[in-house]
Design a protein that fits this description.
About 35% of the residues lie in helices and about 35% in strands. The protein is of the alpha+beta class and about 350 residues long. A seven-stranded antiparallel beta sheet has the order 1-2-7-3-4-5-6. A five-stranded mixed beta sheet has the order 10-9-8-11-12, with helices on both faces. The chain has a four-stranded mixed beta sheet with strand order 13-16-14-15, with helices on both faces. The protein is flat, with a radius of gyration of 24 Å.
Length: about 350
């Protein structure tokens, strides 16, 4: 993502979308009643009987809702047209959908001011574009799962099975194992990352490492590979890996690792009956100067009570950390009403 201009007095930011992750981060900061400006296409009919033709227009849209289309890699922003140009090609106050994709430029205007915690989402998205991407692969003798570690969380992308069986003859087993490893290597080659962590229980990950070395594949893969142990080849194994001390140096700047540490700290306070969670408890904690950090799920940021609470928190210089509601830490936080406070 690229910030083209931030007009603080106008509560308006102009950004360029460069990756699919940027679309996801843009969705996190676009709320109902925001005004979004972008180029779009509208069907223009000079007369009712005409078939009409598509015209490129500039649209100002009052947002009602947003949704991500992963298949087409587009952010759909739905709302009413409040202005645009050329006016003859648009119909004011009619509904329209902006289809935002990579390389599009959009302006987002807030009705009031841009809160610091939303600007941080944008700033972090800019930083993410400068960082190497990271892949995670968990493998054993039955299956392999593939995931990307993104700025906003984890995206699980693929899962393949070995089809190995102890009933096979030694020759058939070895042939199937080679096919399994070859398929894994091909998927590693196609992952759009600079660095991959390969983990798993048992010896299969070590066999993969030997297979790569024996076949002189490392240079062809053109990726840094790091091998480590995890207890299982499931989604929980990915979260275990992220929290592991073995990969601390690799992941030390990754936001999700910080989120796990904060959640562990919060759960410890819960066990000691010293935790703050839920809107009313957080409000009281802010008023009594008992909270220095707030954890909140991103799907709650358009909630009016949450907005007011976070505005008060910013006035009191309280740090706000936004969790991805779809990750494990976000799911845990949801069990505590989606918002928690730490002293």
């Amino acid at each position: 993502m690229k910030i083209i201009k931030f007009y603080k007095d106008e509560s308006l930011i102009k950004i360029k979308i460069e990756t699919f992750n940027d679309l996801l981060n843009a969705q996190r900061v676009i709320f109902s009643n925001d005004i979004v400006k972008s180029k779009s296409l509208r069907k223009f009919k000079p007369e009712e009987k005409d078939k009409g033709e598509l015209k490129e227009v500039m649209i100002y849209l009052e947002v009602e809702k947003t949704e991500i289309d992963k298949d087409s890699e587009k952010l759909r922003i739905v709302g009413k047209i409040i202005d645009g140009s050329p006016l003859k090609y648009i119909q004011l106050h009619s509904y329209h959908t902006l289809n935002i994709e990579k390389n599009n430029i959009i302006e987002i205007k807030k009705q009031e001011h841009w809160p610091g915690y939303l600007l941080k989402i944008i700033e972090d998205a800019v930083k993410e574009s400068r960082r190497p991407n990271l892949g995670i692969i968990l493998v054993d003798d039955e299956k392999t799962i593939f995931a990307y570690l993104l700025g906003y969380g984890i995206e699980f992308i693929n899962e393949i099975y070995s089809n190995l069986s102890k009933r096979m003859t030694s020759k058939d087993f070895q042939e199937s194992k080679t096919k399994y490893f070859t398929k894994i290597i091909e998927l590693i080659k196609n992952m759009n990352v600079d660095q991959i962590i390969i983990g798993g229980p048992g010896f299969t990950k070590d066999d993969i490492k030997k297979f790569i070395e024996d076949n002189h594949l490392l240079q062809k893969l053109n990726k840094q590979l790091f091998f480590t142990n995890v207890s299982n080849v499931e989604r929980s194994g990915v979260y275990e890996l992220i929290k592991s001390n073995d990969v601390e140096n690799i992941l030390k700047n990754q936001k999700i690792r910080l989120e796990f540490k904060l959640m562990e700290e919060f759960l410890k306070q819960v066990s000691l009956d010293k935790a703050f969670y839920g809107i009313s408890a957080i409000v009281n904690g802010i008023q009594n100067y008992e909270i220095s950090r707030i954890l909140v799920n991103d799907d709650m940021l358009d909630n009016q009570e949450i907005k007011q609470l976070l505005a008060d928190a910013e006035k009191n210089n309280i740090k706000i950390i936004i969790f991805n509601s779809k990750d494990e830490v976000g799911t845990q936080l949801h069990n505590f009403n989606d918002i928690a406070g730490l002293n």
